[in-house]
Inverse folding.
DNA sequence: CTTTTATTGACTATATTTGACCTTGTGACC
DNA sequence: GGTCACAAGGTCAAATATAGTCAATAAAAG
């Protein structure tokens, strides 16, 4: 269980909770109102959005300024058509930092492509702590490993 | 003989005591607070963690910096036959060739410690084909990764 | 006396919080 | 239509709050 002791974590949890309670898969709210609710600087909301609601984590944020302005936070599902290939092509590339890898793995766990145990297992060996001193280009290795894992997840003989 | 009166030992004993009293199998605390409690340098805490709370001794440590930062010390679950600890001990400081790794993984799959999918997943990224050109000491990395995986298999907080 | 283990502190890395300033959209007024 | 006030949201950098690393030194063990 997270300590939830800092503001950013509490705002994140709040947004995820109401996102989970809604039917449409997105929520619309105002930055200033939310900032008031948590008695914080409005820019704190941007901080939470940019660190917790990224594309890798499966979210899309739209907004509008001016009168009637708003924030819309959308929870994305995976495209069932060729999802692995799309993920590999769009999100991995030639380099994959520890943080981006973890986000991606969490996302694949949410989509039930990995079990919790598999997610922990993969994250454990993708850690900089494990790779850094033995691998000059750790991000290149992570990218390669992640692609290899995803390719193997497509094997037919895997669910026997 | 240890005098049992040095700081590191007392901090170790303290952490193990509160770990034993908790229900969840892990504790969360702050490095600075603990250092204050023992009136020592914060880095002393890191020393204790790296020397006493290692995977081979049955612990995992996770942490986070910045506001709301914390240390989480996880006590690994019981391993009655000491199988993992023995495997880890054998692998410490050793090298693990692709062939030996594959044999070990197959054995753990037969013993139903890994599912077929997990075995395929691990083997896929342990291949020399994946590691060789990016990792000067591929066997050292495999040994380290394998230990890390085994440690994580003992976590109580993953429901296997 | 030598080797191993423990202690400390200076420096580094990372995450969060806040505030001053910037940009864009809307509508009233001319 | 142009301009202006106001109502959003955006950006960025400084201040603050944590934790990590490393190397020098001290203490203990052998």
């Amino acid at each position: 269980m997270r300590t939830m002791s800092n503001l950013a974590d509490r705002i994140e949890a709040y947004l995820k909770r109401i996102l989970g309670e809604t039917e449409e898969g997105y929520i619309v709210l105002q930055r200033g109102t939310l900032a008031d609710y948590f008695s914080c600087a409005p820019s704190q909301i941007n901080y939470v959005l940019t660190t917790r609601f990224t594309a890798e984590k499966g979210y899309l944020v739209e907004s509008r300024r001016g009168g009637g302005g708003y924030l819309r936070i959308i929870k994305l599902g995976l495209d069932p058509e060729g999802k692995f290939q799309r993920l590999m092509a769009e999100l991995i590339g030639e380099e994959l930092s520890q943080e981006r890898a973890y986000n991606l793995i969490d996302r694949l766990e949410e989509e039930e492509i990995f079990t919790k145990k598999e997610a922990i297992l993969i994250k454990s060996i993708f850690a900089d702590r494990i790779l850094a001193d033995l691998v000059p280009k750790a991000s290149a290795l992570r990218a390669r490993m992640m692609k290899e894992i995803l390719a193997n997840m497509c094997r037919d003989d895997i669910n026997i």
Observations:
- The beta strands of chain A are 26-29, 59-64, 70-75.
- The CA atoms of residues 45 and 120 of chain A lie 29 Å apart.
- Chain A has eight helices and three strands.
